[in-house]
Amino acid sequence: MAGDPHEQSHAQASTSASSTLGHVTTLIRHFIDLRDGTHGGSVSRQDKETYFAHAVELLDIVARRALDEINTYLLLDTGRVVATGLRRGADGSLSASWELAWPEQQAAGVAPVTLRAYYGVGFHHPHLRGETVGDWPLNVFTIHDAADQLPIMRAIATSDLHNLVFKADYRIIPAVTRPSIL
77: left (phi > 0), else alpha (psi -120 to 50), else beta? Predict the structure, then answer.
C-alpha cells in the first residue's frame, strides 16, 4: 500500500537496523525486497547480478574464515579450502562456492563442507546455502554487510558438517578420533 506510514524503505531499514543484529537486518532487507519487488533497490536482473558479483567478492574472506575455523578446531588443520570464484551456469544462473575438504571426508565418500552463494535464473534475489543446509537470503552490499554474515556462514558450515557426519559417521572428524588432542 503506497504511502503507508508503517512501511519502511530499504534505506530506512538499513538505518534503523544498524543497531540490530546482522542476521535480523538481512531478514528485514529480504522482506522489504520481497514486498517492493527489488533487491538492493534494483529491479533489473543485470543490476542484481552486479550486486551479486560484488557480494561474492565481499564474502570471500568471511567464507574462508568460517571454514578455516572448522579446519583448525575440528579437522586439526588437515583440510583445504577451495573457492570457485564467480561462475555462470549453462542456464544463466550465477554462483560461487567455498569448499572445505579433508582426507577422512574424502575417504568416506561424502561431499565437502560447502558454502554456496547463488543467484538462480528465476530467482528474485540471491541466496546462501550449504551442501546439506537450505537457503538463507543473501543481501550483501558493503564490507560490513559481508562481515555480518559470519555467524550465518558459521551456522551453515557447522550444520553442513553435522549433516555430513550423518551421511558417513563421526570418524570423519579428526578432533573426535584423536582423543589425546581433546
Answer: left
Stretches where the chain sits below pLDDT 70 are 1-20, 179-182
Residue found by looking up cell 556462514 in the block: 153
The pLDDT value recorded for residue 164 is 87
Q: Are 51 and 141 in contact (CB under 8 A)?
A: yes
pLDDT tens for residues 117-154? 999 999 988 999 999 888 888 889 999 999 999 998 99
Burial of 24 (0-12, 13-18, 19+ CB in 10 A): exposed
User: Which letter does DSSP use for residue 92 in this model?
Assistant: S
The answer to whether the CB of 55 falls within 8 A of the CB of 152 is no
pLDDT of residue 14: 46
**Locate cell 558493503: which residue?**
142
CB-based contacts of 108, cutoff 8 Å, min separation 6: 167, 168, 169, 171, 172
Could you give the count of Cα atoms lying within 13 Å of 111 in the half-sphere of its Cβ? 16
